[in-house]
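Final report, section 2: Outcomes. Of the targets proposed, Glycerate kinase is the one most frequently requested by collaborating groups, and we therefore present its record in full.
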Amino acid sequence: MRVVIAPDKFKGSLSAPDVAARLSAGLQSAVADLETTLIPVADGGEGTLDAAVGSGFTRRTATVTGPTGQPVRADFAVRGREAVIEMAAASGLALLPSVIHGGGPDSGTATTATSLGTGELIRAALDLGCRQIILGVGGSANTDGGAGVLQGLGAVFLDKEGNELPGGGAALARLDRIDFSGLDVRLEDARFTLASDVDNPLLGSSGAAAIFGPQKGATPSDVVALDAALANFVSVLAGEIGTRAERAAVAPGAGAAGGVGYIAIAALAAARRPGIDVVLGFTELEQRLAGADLVITGEGSLDEQSLLGKTPMGVARAAARAGIPVIAVCGRSTLSQEQLAEAGFSAVHALTDFESNVEKCMAEAGPLLEELGKHIGVHLPAITARTDTKEIIHV
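The predicted structure is given below as tokens.
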């Protein structure tokens, strides 16, 4: 018997590779000669890099500029001419000094954080010969419209006096022109994919500043100022590259990652695709399902958001196309049996079924997942036999 294990991370507890490994250990302790194929996956945000490395990409590291200007060591993944960049590794909220020391983002970082390091990571990938680049966005600290990305690729942002602007979204209010003479010429041969489920535009009441700025520490007055600064950025960029800068500002996904989605669409001609579709593509999940008897997927919390294209749904759809039963594992589930059945799951198992204390579940997720894997292994015949019904079974 062969089982494919394709989970996302259990946020706050275990990475996707660790989740897969723990489940596999439990399953194999219960079933002799069981073959398991481990395929860590993600939805295009945090964990995308781990998914790439788990699928044959090589992890590489570069020293780049963090969101507040400090140097950080950021990983990315390379396979031949392909690269996967997880922007949170270079420009993420988790890299803010205040967050590192146990606090949260504030107004100061909300207005000055930059995506410069993400542009530098792209340049590092170009240095290695990569020309097909996937940008996994999410968890960003910046609201700079992706200006930092362009700066990392050689563009220079100038005010009316010809002075170079500092990083961050607020500074864009003083932007007068952009010097593209130093832009990396290798971009002409590169093709970009924006892995994002965010469909917000760049500006306005549903834009990057208004919707995501407060999560990054922006006050109401900061939101107004940042939105105006981003509008000025669009106007100046349109003067440099034409009306595509204005069209990109209203494109779905332009508001992703503090506007990095905008510059990916406007300046890098990126094609936006749902994050889970991108990840399932480079992991070659559908091809690797061939011959499997069962698929196990999951994430930390199965909830309403999971039904909107998150990892478990993407894996479940792939398993359904292959005619293979799929079960879900999670830390906790808030979905009804009807919702889970409609999603295509033959069974669902939550760690809270074994340990009702949620904090303990998070702290001891590894051992609990092994126990859960063993439990699933004992009941494999019952699970794999239930392929013709949508009744959810709890065994």
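Residues 388-395 have pLDDT under 50 and may be disordered.
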